[in-house]
Task: structure prediction
Amino acid sequence: MNLALIGFGNVGRSLARLLCRKRREFPFRITGIHTLRHGTALDPNGLGENPSFGPPAASIADFLDASNADGAVELTTLNPFTGEPAISHIRAGIARGMHVVTANKGPIAQAFSTLRAEAEAAQVQFRFESTVMDGAPVFNLWRSNLPGVQVLGFAGALNSTSKVVIETMEQGGSFEDGLAAARSLGITEADGAYDAEGWDSAAKTAALANVLLDAHTTTQQVPTRGITRLTPERVQAIVRQGKTVRLISRGRRTKAGVSLRVRAEVLERSDILASGRGTSNVILFHTDLMGTFGSVSVNPGVEQTAYGVFSDLVSLLPDR
Amino acid sequence: MNLALIGFGNVGRSLARLLCRKRREFPFRITGIHTLRHGTALDPNGLGENPSFGPPAASIADFLDASNADGAVELTTLNPFTGEPAISHIRAGIARGMHVVTANKGPIAQAFSTLRAEAEAAQVQFRFESTVMDGAPVFNLWRSNLPGVQVLGFAGALNSTSKVVIETMEQGGSFEDGLAAARSLGITEADGAYDAEGWDSAAKTAALANVLLDAHTTTQQVPTRGITRLTPERVQAIVRQGKTVRLISRGRRTKAGVSLRVRAEVLERSDILASGRGTSNVILFHTDLMGTFGSVSVNPGVEQTAYGVFSDLVSLLPDR
Result:
């Protein structure tokens, strides 16, 4: 299967390495890579892990047409509030009859039902495992393993930056020290405001709600409060009570549709949602037939995000 | 698809209710039920949730031959150290060209590689999702969702009785109070020794090792120490250090094969393996490509065990 990569940052490079390493077992070939920064690389025989870039294609449409790919992998830098340019890239792939895999949560948060309908009409697959909990199976778990079960709701500690900031304040550091620690781990961008204000969690909440609760929502519609009002004094007072704080995403079905929210919640130390250190994430699903269960991901990194994309790609292969 | 149930205790009854409830979407029909206590029920048009039992068939072979079933579901009471009579029942199903699903961990702990080989030779499926973590996807997760990933090891808090006993002692009760609490929750049998001495955890450890680490081991080969030496005084001293105790199953690949053990371990309150109350279970997988991740199951009951069997059955349907 020939692949066209749109975007080639840390996740894209890690994915390229993984595809090379697993080439014998999983017959993928990267025939095109397009980036704003480096330009465009094309080779119908397959690009290596360190491709040579030429001038950029005039447009994503031109790039995809030239790539001779069966699948498009969308990994660009995202505007989380619009989902662009990722949504347009995904549409361009679907319109050309390509399967599309993305690690960008914006399109799932902002335009899932439309993109799903377009993919169905074009008879192609659209996959997005890495958008929540990195590569740990979440969406593919529901796609493959839980026949007949309805998700009634979910609760998750899905944002790593806020967790690192809270842990830093618990240990006596300032809010800014915490953001610096998160930046040094490579898990937050620029000023970290998007994470600290809860918008990363809100986007994941909207994505989960759109896919698992049949919601038609967007990031901006999720009632969201981040951790920016938390102070080291308040966090340490909570620690003295034997408790901790986590930025929690919650969603549940209601008679009117769905109820969603993102809040800093005070939790018992033994609460599953509070467990795990560093960048670990947790999600719990409340269901009709399977009670409450969920997934944990311990200190995931860019390799795990790349693996999630890889697992989506493998699911596109015939006979998988 | 016609099903023959061997055993009709709490899990079997819950499964029969679930199959009835989901009959329109998932076309299963229970055409035979065989139990030691109630006798045998047969109806080629399908038995209801409350079948009428006649005299028992002369043997499991006779029962399966009379059931006209495509799949056998093994749910009998188990001798955990031999895996019998479940192993013989599974063999009888496979030998008749039936797919087999079991919720009994004994056969997976004691005879997995043999049973897998027999099923492959007979071109039938053999499934056992509910044997570890009840219905939460564990084995089916690895079967469907993690292409190319190797399990390097695992760690799990997989035994509910020991957890309830430890929590009882943390709150000032005795060991026996804890066992009584576990019995009242319906999660432990008779005297609870099998759980407290660690053998339930050892059987799950052996099952996980056989399936995920390519081991050829048995319950008895897992170095096992239970929680029987723990006293309320010791448990409370650990609580005063801000920590807790859990009966932990561990396995990992080594150059020589696998290293396995079951031990009561002192853990931080914030450790994922210590999280969750009551009958909650946790498992973590250490892997090559996907780092460390895992599953949690919060207070599972018999309905979740039945659901695990149901999900296995659905995976046997054509086009699933």
